[in-house]
Amino acid sequence: MANLKAVIPVAGLGMHMLPATKAIPKEMLPIVDKPMIQYIVDEIVAAGIKEIVLVTHSSKNAVENHFDT
């Protein structure tokens, strides 16, 4: 298998999802027990892709903090 990489753009401000995204980035909105972005990353890892790049906005500390833990 080729050395695949995943690029996930998460830099948008989520204006179409207001007011839900006023306090939390759209990719961090919870679905059942974890943020939406975690489900996406879990599926990528399950597909065997080992390198994942998240393209974020400088104000999206919640995304970085989630994956730093």
Automatic annotation (TrEMBL):
<feature type="domain" description="Nucleotidyl transferase">
    <location>
        <begin position="5"/>
        <end position="67"/>
    </location>
</feature>
<dbReference type="InterPro" id="IPR005771">
    <property type="entry name" value="GalU_uridylyltTrfase_bac/arc"/>
</dbReference>
<dbReference type="InterPro" id="IPR005835">
    <property type="entry name" value="NTP_transferase_dom"/>
</dbReference>
<keyword id="KW-0808">Transferase</keyword>
<keyword id="KW-0548">Nucleotidyltransferase</keyword>
<protein>
    <recommendedName>
        <fullName>UTP--glucose-1-phosphate uridylyltransferase</fullName>
        <ecNumber>2.7.7.9</ecNumber>
    </recommendedName>
</protein>
<comment type="similarity">
    <text>Belongs to the UDPGP type 2 family.</text>
</comment>
<dbReference type="InterPro" id="IPR029044">
    <property type="entry name" value="Nucleotide-diphossugar_trans"/>
</dbReference>
<dbReference type="Pfam" id="PF00483">
    <property type="entry name" value="NTP_transferase"/>
</dbReference>
<dbReference type="GO" id="GO:0003983">
    <property type="term" value="F:UTP:glucose-1-phosphate uridylyltransferase activity"/>
</dbReference>
<dbReference type="GO" id="GO:0006011">
    <property type="term" value="P:UDP-alpha-D-glucose metabolic process"/>
</dbReference>
